[in-house]
Specification:
heterodimer; A: 95 residues; mainly alpha; Histone, subunit A; two-stranded antiparallel sheet; 3 helices; 36% helix; B: 467 residues; alpha/beta; Amidase signature (AS) enzymes; globular
Amino acid sequence: MEITREEIDHLAKLSDFSLSDEEKDSLGTDLKNIIGYISQLDELDTDGVEPTYQVFEMENVWREDEIKPQEADREALLNLAPESEDNQIKVPKVL
Amino acid sequence: MKIATKEISAVSLVKEALEKAKRCKNYNIFVSLNEEAALNRAKEIDAKIARGEDAGHLAGVPYALKDNFLSREGNTTASAKILESLHAPINSTTVEKLESEGAIMIGRTNLDAFAHGSSTENSYFGPTLNAYDKTRVAGGSSGGSAVAVAKGIVQFATGTDTGGSIRQPASFNGVYGFKPTYGTISRYGVVAMASSTDCIGFFARSAEDIDLLMQICAGQDEKDLTTLPDYYGAEGQSLSPQRIGIVKDFDLSHVDPAVKKTFDDKVAELKASGHEIVELSMPALKYALAVYYIVVPAEVSSNLSRYDGIRYGYRSEDAKSLDDVFEKTRGAGFMPENKRRIMIGNFVLSSGFYDAYYLKAQKARTLIIEEYNKAFEKCDFILTPVSPSPAFKLGEKVGDPVSMYLEDVMSVPLNLAGLPGLAIPAGETESGLPVGLQIVGPRRSDKALLEFAGTIANQAKINEENN
């Protein structure tokens, strides 16, 4: 399956990253090869088979909804942000 | 790992480990060393022991931490630019448990960025070199941890295994590497890759050492709701001869002759020592790699959407608008392999392709799990190679993603089914490269599997040459 430049642009948009023209070329080739490989699943008959999304044996692990002391305080978390001001994380103007 | 004697001090052990780490600098094993904090902890432990207090089962034992585990000591990078300076305000549960038993983290080890890879060449900090041949890869993604143990720098190291990232580098460097049953060890505080297959595990020089680490680290954790209720115990059972399955659908004609010989020799040895060899037919296994490279990128694309340059990590300096922050940060912050996986993930999940790829893969996954269930009615453990070849040359596969992915063909099926698997050192090539084998067990057979391995394999050797 060929991957067009438009499809690469669309996937880059879904992935939220900018790509150089060089990257687009090499990713186009790589994606074509990878999709070619995974397409071999076509030959496997899966009619009537239930999908498995997780291999954990349990479901609905409940806990009480209560506030517990947190290991990391507000300052420690804010310090992780590339930019913060007045106890808030700073981002470029949105509107 | 019996260290808690007064004959040797924690400080001298830590100093020795740090010196070895520095002598091995050209292998690029560590992303960062934890010198000051490690020495301080060692002094505390020596003081505890001097006061006659219990300093824990791992008192003073130096260890290496794969750099995708959060620890309050130093920065966690996941070997990715986008996380280059994350100083975590919490400890992962594994770090917490190891340190409560007195273990001392001496450094953080290199990996393929976000654990995407099978060679550690996808690291932002450059590749880690193989412990036995500096022109070859360490394997991956936990390459740094494997080489740290193989070089005798530390007694053990942590790893993560999503599709072989512990077992393959263990095999390439001649040490033990264990991936437990899915859900056995808490993943709290570990950088997520693919949540339905990610597991925490260990590198060490014997199955017995790994058993001790499992006793300490396994168990339910309220901070990770995908941990199983406690099942891993201290008490073992005496093992009678086992039924060992060998998969006849694995075509060994394409694997390296040294790998095939190591496998055949071990099968003959097991037979001679009274174990029964059972041939298994598992035709769906050959689709496991295709399933893996659909399911895992899908989960990767979701898990890596959190790296947005807003709350932590790197932010692009030339971002003007909010969209710019996302796109430029992620564009510059991810390695090419991260981008491939995120894009493949978005491809197989996008409308029009979801049924043909993602849903189809999850159905095929059911068939693979059913094959394992049937196989374990006929045998106790399955023996396979870890990977088709010993350590390959640096640069040999990095430009060809599919050939790199084929490295994982024998390791990924377990992850899809959540089964435990152990790489054991088992042989070597004519030029002296290590060759490992993989023992696979049913879910929650972890303890028995490690005990069985202890009866059929020897302690790993250390390669101190060139240190």
